[in-house]
Amino acid sequence: MKSRHPRKLAENTPAFSRGGANPREIPASEAKARLSELLDAVERGETIAITRHGRRIARLTPDAQHRLQEIKQAMENIEALRKEIRKRSGLITAEEIVSSIHEGHKI
Fold this sequence. Notes:
Helices cover 48% and strands 14% of the residues. The protein is an alpha+beta fold. The protein folds into 2 domains: 62 residues, YefM-like fold (3-Layer(aba) Sandwich); 40 residues, no CATH class.
């Protein structure tokens, strides 16, 4: 017969960052005492399930919108760096070559 209560995972079990199919479970009393540490783990992408009497009652999950903003900013920074490197190296793209040809310039 299957247990009605989800099994507890070891403290070092990694969790999935998207909702967590098997998030680390922490009793509510322990979560209260370790909230700052748990928030640090969530900030790193971990999902944590909080339990009361062995039943999941809540989840701490990363803020997806915040993470998307971080990724978008990183992509913009990479693009700006790529443009700066190309500018400093004097390299030109295929699009620039085609554009110059259409404008009648010699390369």
